[in-house]
Amino acid sequence: MIEIMDQLVERFLEAGKKPGSIMLYPHVGIDADALGSSLALLICLRKINVQARLLLDEPIPDKLKFLPGLDLIETFNEDDLDKLALDQQIALTIDCSEGGRVGRRQALYERAGEFAVIDHHVSGGESGHLRWIDHQAAASGEMVYDLIHHLQQKLGCELLDEDTETLLMTAIVSDTGGFVYSNTSARTFRTAANLMDREIDLRRITYQLFDRTSQVRLRLMGRIFTDARFSTDGRLVMSAVNRELLQEYGATDTDVEGVIAHLRNVAGVEVAFLIREVGEDTLRVNIRSSDSFNAALFASQFGGGGHPKAAGMQLRHMTIEQAEDMILTKAGERL
Q: Over the stretch 213-236, which tens digit does the pLDDT of each residue have?
């Protein structure tokens, strides 16, 4: 781990002496870990005069609009592709490990002369030159904290402040479910304890991530739960959300986030699937499971990935009904 952090730090410092920027690429379908980690690293790199940029091609979810540093985010525009490509020294993916996970920004990502990775997902593969994959980390925020701490020691200066520590705490709290998921480790708590040395408003973070809701979301959740289908003697549960359902309730994609955890928590359920229509001919499938069902392995069959108990994948050119039948058949073989 130290060797790869050294590689990344040295390359970042070298980049600071040359024209051009390090472009940060959190995954599409931005979440608290990807966004919090990216913003914290962006802020710290700029503090040491290393040019870094964070471009997104999607809106910030409402529940993350409390985060500091959102004004530093740029909106990706394909019309600026050539200009952006000229400014791109390094393409750094955060909380993902490949260009296929960055949405429309992939066109810019692929024009980079050099690539780097910071990711904690099992599906990210293995570590290598400028490629840091840590399967033991509970969140990419944990890794970015270690990297910034390493950078502080090397330069002998303080880079973390209340804003960056709030961003990293949000990343970690989110990906550990408030320190209750099985990925939570002693390392996670040590990192969180160090972050809490400052006056971080932990209650605000947990409220925004887990407790804050709306009437629209409450009613939509009720419908999703009502429509849920149980099979394989109650060990598998599946529900689906199409565009018409969102329109009926006046909801958005962000209103669906977190719903799958409630499906997985039903007694006897070993794996839960939530199918979401996210675009024309495109379905996103979220998976949550118990120890007996490897969600990441299942998702990998369809080009997806994640963690053993939390994964996702995309399906194209099929209806929700076809996806349900296929998932039921394939998952049933593993139960």
A: 999 999 999 999 999 999 999 999
